[in-house]
Automatic annotation (TrEMBL):
Coiled coil location: none
Keyword Transferase included in the entry's annotation: yes
Residue ranges of domain Penicillin-binding C-terminal in the record: 687-770
Entry protein name: peptidoglycan glycosyltransferase
Organism annotation: Hymenobacter bucti
Length: 775
């Protein structure tokens, strides 16, 4: 007994060795055929098919993965096609002898005795059915058995079997006829697909259902007799009707599908992060919404839905209708570079918060201002005089934003945007200026949505993931958690002008933080919002770039944003953002938002960032020494021993004072300085060489400067008396900026003769002239 077992093992080992040698010879003489060309399939997060494409030979040949081949499918195929599949080495000698006898003697059904492996060989290399080609099939089958496992051979067979027309493979048939993947099919549907490959032209689902039903039930009864399936399962399958017909291939997320397929040529299965239900709902909402806008000259919209916890994109709508050629529906609005309007303002204010330049209650001038030739205007062409930072952001005011950008620096803003993946900004950075914050740059919906997702994640940016492999990529901190929270707190306010009409009275207004934007010429309308779970970006406009009077972020983009949040995140938790431990409160002057000084009776609470926020004391009122009749003022040097009085005067910026006077608002100007003062214009009656109270120390008067036009700036500094807190710089009589008296200020001068003036907060003024040349 023991010796017999040894002989059998030896024979088996010899057979395997012979097979290996034969495969080696065949590999040299007949290299394996190339792998089949499959239809590219873009898969959703749950593995279902989002979008399918024809393969290069214009066939529907969708790759069936091993987990999709159910035991029922294996059992049915093997029992019907090749019952000894698991035991032979590619060729079944017994079946060959039986087939030869039947064919020669004419007894029974004529058959070729092809194994599943031999059929795979024929499907890989279709040839005319001759005796010689049959021998080649047998050799190729032996070769395949040496290289592939039985599971892989069965998988290859199920991917290649014909189902009529241009449909090949079980997965293609399952999706196109039953709209289900193979592993979701019932036993009756599985057996239906198992019987068609032998007669793909005569048994066409949707045309010959009655014949197919009879054939299916015949095989079901046979499988029942062979005890291959439980009796009850067979009984249920026999009762199941056959209502199959050909359906269109899945076409969800066409823009993302095309993008992923182009990025991965030749890949059969491309997993994405999209959720089918979310994607379908977003597509429907965008399509129906744009239809309602058609009469207003607006033809397109794009939507991006991002999961804030994973940074995965769950819905990607590149246009309202991919098939709408008249409106350029195949353009991908998610990646189209457009003007971002005001959507970058939250990031700018966040950078200013982290640099200690302001806090939410800091008061900013909102008056007509000339920034070295750039004169921004607010969207409504009006000014409010002075506004807090939070109001400037909530109302999306342009002039305060440009002023803050001048303080933060364009380079600092563009560097942060590059870190957040803004490609066009990165390329254009050397040429960008103060208009960047008003939309004077290029950005995409994908980039902007990623930026706002960073705000939802406490200021930490992570690249958006389109595939599962892209999840958990390294993150970059753009803002502190404290700055991100303050921006969220401001953007979640609902008393604001960009609330859509009638939205305030809606019971379904979602709890989100959001920002709108409208590009110059009303060509682009943006609305981007977020809560703890999702960030959703919406763009509405025309791909042609044509503007529309109705095209604003508030009135056109925000309604779609709210619809999306209500539809996609309505049942999500109501958990909201909590202030980080790095934030604290302090009392500030209600007039300026600064730490209260000695003349600040009106105070209120404000957030601030300990260790970052500036602690300058407020001086919105200055104490002035006046003549008894109030006709002129004294400085400390010329004040008499008696006969004067003290008074408080507003200490506001010159441009704010000029705006108030131009608007007819009540103002109080400081009376002229004592004309008998010994220190007028820096000289005295008795000592002509006395030191001036205000002097420009840089640049030097009457000097000539040769500067690099690309990046070289001129330094402004002054020497002022101890009582001077703030000075105001002018170039060619145009206001540049206000600064502490000791601060070094840089600016880009124009070419030619330049007049530089400096005024202090005591009414003194001095100027110099220089000559500037550029190279």
């Amino acid at each position: 007994m023991h010796n017999r077992r040894k002989r059998r093992l030896g024979q088996l080992g010899g057979g395997l060795l012979l097979l290996a040698l034969l495969a080696l010879v065949l590999d040299r003489l007949f290299p394996l055929p190339p792998a089949p060309q499959y239809s590219p399939l873009v898969l959703a997060q749950d593995g279902s098919v989002l979008h399918a494409y024809l393969n290069p030979t214009q066939k529907w040949r969708m790759k069936t993965e091993l987990p999709e081949i159910t035991p029922a499918l294996q059992t049915a195929i093997i029992a019907k096609e090749d019952r000894y599949f698991r035991y032979h080495l590619g060729v079944n000698p017994l079946a060959l002898v039986q087939a030869a006898g039947r064919n020669l003697l004419g007894h029974g059904r004529t058959t070729g005795a092809s194994t599943i492996t031999m059929q795979v060989a024929r499907l890989l290399e279709p040839k005319e059915r001759t005796f010689g080609n049959k021998l080649l099939e047998m050799l190729r089958a032996t070769q395949l058995e040496a290289h592939l496992s039985k599971a892989e051979i069965l998988q290859l067979y199920l991917n290649l079997v014909p189902y009529g027309s241009n449909i090949e493979g079980v997965k293609s048939a399952a999706l196109l006829y039953f709209q289900q993947p193979p592993h979701y099919l019932s036993l009756a549907q599985t057996v239906t697909l198992a019987i068609i490959p032998n007669r793909p032209a005569g048994l066409v689902l949707g045309k010959h259902n009655a014949q197919i039903l009879g054939e299916r039930n015949r095989w079901l009864r046979y499988f029942g007799q062979e005890k291959l399936f439980p009796t009850q399962d067979i009984a249920n399958a026999l009762l199941e009707p056959l209502e199959a017909r050909r359906h269109a291939a899945p076409t969800l997320a066409p823009h993302l599908a095309r993008r992923l397929v182009q990025a991965r040529p030749g890949q059969a299965l491309i997993p994405s992060t999209l959720r089918p239900a979310t994607q379908a709902k977003a597509e429907d909402l965008a399509r129906n919404y744009v239809r309602r806008l058609a009469t207003r000259g607006i033809s397109q919209a794009a939507v991006l839905v991002v999961n804030n916890h994973t940074h995965a994109v769950e819905a990607y709508v590149g246009s309202a209708d991919f098939g709408d050629l008249g409106s350029s529906g195949q353009v991908d609005g998610v990646r189209a570079v457009r003007s971002p309007g005001s959507t970058l303002k939250p990031l700018l204010y966040g950078l200013a918060l982290d640099r200690g330049l302001l806090t939410p209650k800091t008061v900013l001038p909102d008056v007509p201002t000339n920034f070295q030739g750039f004169r921004p205007e607010n969207f409504d062409k009006k000014c409010q005089g002075e506004v807090t930072m939070e109001r400037a952001l909530t109302y999306s005011l342009n002039i305060p934003a440009v002023r803050v950008l001048a303080e933060v620096g364009v380079d600092n803003l563009t560097t942060t945007l590059r870190q957040a993946g803004f490609r066009q900004v990165g390329r254009d950075a050397p040429r960008l200026g103060l208009s960047t914050i008003l939309g004077g740059c290029g950005a995409t919906l994908e980039e902007l949505t990623g930026l706002y997702s960073a705000l939802a994640n406490g200021g930490k940016y992570s690249p958006l993931a389109l595939t599962s492999q892209q999840i958990s990529r390294p993150s970059t901190r753009l803002l502190s958690p404290a700055a991100a929270y303050l921006l969220t707190d401001i953007l979640a306010q609902r008393t604001r002008p960009d609330l859509p009409m009638d939205a305030a009275s809606s019971r379904h207004l979602p709890r989100i933080a959001w920002k709108t934007g409208t590009s110059y010429g009303r060509r682009d309308a943006w609305s981007i919002g977020y809560n703890k779970d999702y960030t959703i970006g919406v763009w509405v406009g025309n791909f042609s770039g044509q503007g529309s009077p109705a095209l604003t972020g508030a009135d056109v983009a925000s309604p779609l944003l709210f619809d999306l949040f209500n539809a996609l995140a309505y049942n999500n938790s109501n958990e909201w953002f909590a202030p980080p431990a790095s934030l604290d409160f302090r009392l500030v002057c209600a007039e300026t938002g600064l730490v209260p000084g000695e003349h600040c009776p009106n105070q209120l609470m404000d957030y601030y960032l300990p260790g970052a926020s500036a602690s300058h004391r407020c001086q919105h009122q200055q104490e002035v020494l006046l003549a008894a009749d109030g006709t002129f003022s004294y400085c400390r040097a010329c004040a008499p021993a008696a006969g004067y009085r003290r008074a408080l005067y507003p200490n506001v910026l010159p441009e704010v004072l000029a705006y108030r006077e131009a608007q007819g608002l009540p103002t109080r100007r400081l009376p002229p300085h004592n004309p008998a003062c010994r220190l007028v214009r820096g000289t005295t009656a008795d000592a002509p060489e006395a030191a001036p109270l205000l002097a420009i120390t840089s640049p030097a008067g009457h000097a000539e400067y040769l500067l690099d036009a690309a990046d070289q700036q001129l330094l402004l500094t002054c020497a002022a008396g101890a009582e001077v807190r703030q000075v105001y710089w002018y170039v060619n009589d145009q206001f540049v900026r206000a600064a502490p008296a000791t601060e070094r200020v840089f600016f880009r001068p124009p070419t030619g003769e330049v007049k530089i003036s400096c005024a202090d907060d005591h009414g003194r003024n001095v100027d110099v002239r220089v000559l500037v040349r550029h190279f």
